[in-house]
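Need the bound structure for magnesium ion, inputs here:
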Amino acid sequence: MALERIELRLLRLPYVHYFETSLGREKEREFILVKVFSQGETGYGEVAASRAPLYSYETVGTAWHVLTEFFIPLLFRQKIEDPEEFAAAVRKYRGHPMARAGLELALWDLKARKLNQPLFKLYGGVYEKIPAGVSIGIQDSVEELIARVGDFLQQGYQRIKLKIKPGWDINVCQAVRDHFPDILLQVDANGAYSRETKAGLKALDEFNLLMIEQPFPPYDLWDHSLFQKEMNTPLCLDESIYDFSAARSAVEMGSCRVINIKVGRVGGIVEARQIHDFCQEKGLPVWCGGMLESGIGRAHNLHLASLPNFKFPHDLSASRRYYQVDIVEPEITLEPGGKIKVPQDPGIGVTPREKMIESLTLKKEVLLPEKCS
Ligand code: OSB
Ligand code: MG
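Answer from helper R.:
Posting the output first, comments after.
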């Protein structure tokens, strides 16, 4: 089979509440939606990259460029429709994992819709509901943070993740533990520390944290391996794990005891599954991170999180935690007990709201096979 057409759209969606990390504060998500068309079916993918190169070097601009100039023409030229074939073919290009993942995800959704199966069944997912956590950004005050934590706990979220940075770390963990001594709690620094400033992090061993995520910058696997030896709390890597070989190096060097898998960061489901399977063999648990995706990217994450070695509550929250109105229906909701159902309808199992998507579109490009040869 060959694809008839591919559509890229740049969308902008405001958050219900600003999201601040050590990298900065954002009030809206700008992202690329990928639609692939074949024989009356449509597959949907979302590119995880955001407007600025902060979390990753990729941006919506670089992703648009490599998709339209390289990845989509490659796919048309070789008449590829299968996601695994695409993953193999696109390996000849270096980098740009979020761009390749966005397209691969759309092909997975298309394939599952054509087979009339929910996506998780195609790649061996086992859980029908997954445990939900919430990632809470840096707030204007500790009091506001405590109120937000309390609110999310009341809604039923199983685990709280706090964003930290130097000066918003020990004091914040202390305050949250004073109010909520027994909750599942973890922190994420997005690489804000270094060997020189690690003293603040060492103090976090006192707070019974599930893990400390990405203390040092992405390419510092060696420093993470030294630091893990000094800490009782497990380190978890996010940005550092940009592909399978990085995961293997990190595990073999002892740079972490847990891995946060994000399908965009590692370049697609094929790579994510390889990391998942390797960690499972090594006895290292993983969990599914997020990039504040719209309902389309989040539905994809739900299917991925149903693989068996996903062992912690995830950064997967209900639509209304992120957006006033999501771009899919039904919206993603939290079940009693703090779980989210993996959608059971064909493909990603949710229906994109096309009118809403049209009204949010800032830019659109349609690519056709005959124009890409
Ligand atoms: O580091 O995990 C991160 C959001 C955007 C970029 C990086 C990160 C995050 C989150 C939010 O922590 C996770 C989510 O709920 O989608
Ligand atoms: Mg992170």
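Comments: The two ends are 17 Å apart (CA to CA). The chain has two domains: 5-115+353-371, 121-351.
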